Amino acid sequence: MAAGWHSGLSEREISCAENLLLRLDVQLEHSLLDIGAGTGILPSILKKRGIFPQKYVAVDLSSNMLKELREAFPEAETRHLDFDREQKAIGLFDLVILYNSIPHFKNLDAVFANARRSVQPGGRFVIAHARTRLALSEHHRAIGYSSSHKPIPSDSELLEVSSRHGFTDACIEDDDYFYFCVEVKK
C-alpha cells in the first residue's frame, strides 16, 4: 500500500496537517521527530511552505513507507522501528509529532516513554488526528474495522500516562479534529 499511500490522502487530512503545523509554528531551526510518518505528509507540507526543519527524523514500522518517504525527501533521516515498544533514545527534539497514526499504537506507556526520551526541555509531544474520536470510531465501524482498544485513548488515559512520564501542560481538543499536546518543562 505504500506506493499509493500519499496520493490517497484526503483534502481533510492534508488541511488538518497544515493547520497543525501552523499551530505549532514549526520553523527552520526546529528539530522534529515524526512518529508513524508513513510516506511523509508532514514533510511534504513543510517543504511546500519552505520550512523543512534543520533536523527531521521520520519513524515508521513499515520499511516500504519509509522507502517512499526517502525517495520524496532524501534530506530526511529515517528510522525503521516500532514506537509501540520501548526504544533507545533517537536524540532530542523540539517537537515529537504523531499525526493520524494513534489508532495503530496499543502500548501507550511505550509510546509516551519513547516520546519523553525524545523531547528536549521546552519541547512538545503532540498526538493529532484529522478525525475526532467520534468520527474515527464511526469511520472504523463503516469499514468494518474492529480493534481491542479505542482508536484514540480517552482524555483521562492520555492525562494519566502523560503525567506518569513527566509531561506537563496538557491541552486536549476534540472539536474539528483531535489534538493533544504536552510539554517538557525547561
From the alpha-carbon coordinates, what is the Rg to the nearest angstrom? 15 Å
CATH homology-level superfamily: Vaccinia Virus protein VP39
Side-by-side strand order of the widest sheet: 3-2-1-4-5-7-6
Q: What is the share of helical residues?
A: 25-40%
Largest sheet: 7 strands, mixed
Counted by DSSP, the helix tally is 7
Order of helices and strands: HHEHEHEEHEHHEE
What is the total number of structural domains?
1
Instruction: Briefly note the structural class of the backbone.
Output: alpha/beta
Q: Which fold name fills CATH's third level, the topology?
A: Rossmann fold
CATH A-level architecture: 3-Layer(aba) Sandwich
Poorly predicted regions: 1-6
Beta-strand percentage range: 15-25%
Terminus-to-terminus distance? 41 Å
Strand tally is 7
In CATH, what is the class?
Answer: Alpha Beta
Mean of residue pLDDT values: 90
In one word, what is the shape?
globular
GO molecular function: S-adenosylmethionine-dependent methyltransferase activity
Protein name: Methyltransferase type 11 domain-containing protein
Organism: Paenibacillus oryzae
Pfam family, one: Methyltransf_11
Report on this model:
The chain has 186 residues and is of the alpha/beta class. 35% of the residues lie in helices and 25% in strands. The chain has a single domain, classed as Vaccinia Virus protein VP39 (Rossmann fold). A seven-stranded mixed beta sheet has the order 3-2-1-4-5-7-6, sandwiched between helices. Helix 2 packs across helix 3. The longest helix is centred in the first third of the chain and has 13 residues. The N terminus is likely disordered.
